[in-house]
Structure formats: structure tokens, C-alpha cells
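Pilot study result, target chain (179 residues):
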Amino acid sequence: MAKIVDRLLLFIYSLSIGVISVVAILLLSGAIPYELTFAQEQRFFLIAIIVAAVLFLISIRFFYISIRRDRTVTNSIDQRTEFGDIQISVETIENLCLKAASRVRGVKDLKSRIKVSQSGLEIAIRAVVDGEESIPTLTTDVQKQVHDFVEDTTGIPVSSVSVYIANVVQAPSFKSRVE
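Predicted structure:
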């Protein structure tokens, strides 16, 4: 929500600065003649002070955004051992999943997604199969291979491995040509 507000503020700020710049250029170049009465001049100065104060506050907000530290959550799983702390990135675990799943024969075009929960890692594998082997057997093999490999390699418990078979690869058919 804060990002939407910041984008809206940036839009308003940019639009305001643009309009003020154009008006200032036109007034200072003499393209727009101006003669104000004392009451109009007082009102103009009051409006100018209010606009300047609002733009100054928006400027302070943008300055704060530019220098603050980004507090986004690092995508890693932290473990404490007797020797110290270990951090394993989610990307590393995704690559380990792909490595393990690619060892299963008949599986192609793999993608993985990791979700960290209280009970352990929830791994989702998307695959395309060649269709030459039983899909239930193939998915069970992928689940077991990924589960065991990730737990053994990282030491992080895996709560579930779900496999989504997206498609079956169509083998190109070659017609033999007899001459």
C-alpha cells in the first residue's frame, strides 16, 4: 500500500513541478502579462507558500525513501549450528530441486517454487513428461528424489513436494521416404 501512495505522490510531485516550471517560464519571459492588485497579490503569495510547503514535504518523503535501507525480507533460510549461522538462499534450494528432479528419467522442462512454512519447505515442481512411462510412478519418483535430495543436502526438513505435470512432449514423427 505504501508503494502505491509513494507512486501517487511522485506523480503529483512531478506534475506540480512541471506546471510550476511552465508558468514561471511564461511569466518571466513576458509571454503572460500580469498585473495584480494588493489583495490578489496577498492571496497569490498565500497560495504559493502553501504549494511550496506541500512540495517541500513531498521532497522530504522522497529524500527519506532514497536513503533508507531496504527492509525487504532476504529470501534465505537461516539455520544455527554449533559452529555458527548458515544461510541458504531460496534460489539455491530451487536449483537443488531442479537438479534432483532432472535425475528422474522421462522428466523435462522443469521449474520449481519454494515456500517456507513452520513445518518445513513446501516444494512445487512443474514438469513436462515424455509420456513413455506411467505418470503416477514418475511423479512419485520425482517427489521422493527431490524430498530426499533436498533434506540430505541442506538439512532443512521438507514438509511436502507437489508435482504438476504441465504437458506431455510430443515426439516428432519422421516419415520414412522410400525411393
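One observation from the pilot: The two ends are 70 Å apart (CA to CA). A full batch analysis is planned for the follow-on phase.
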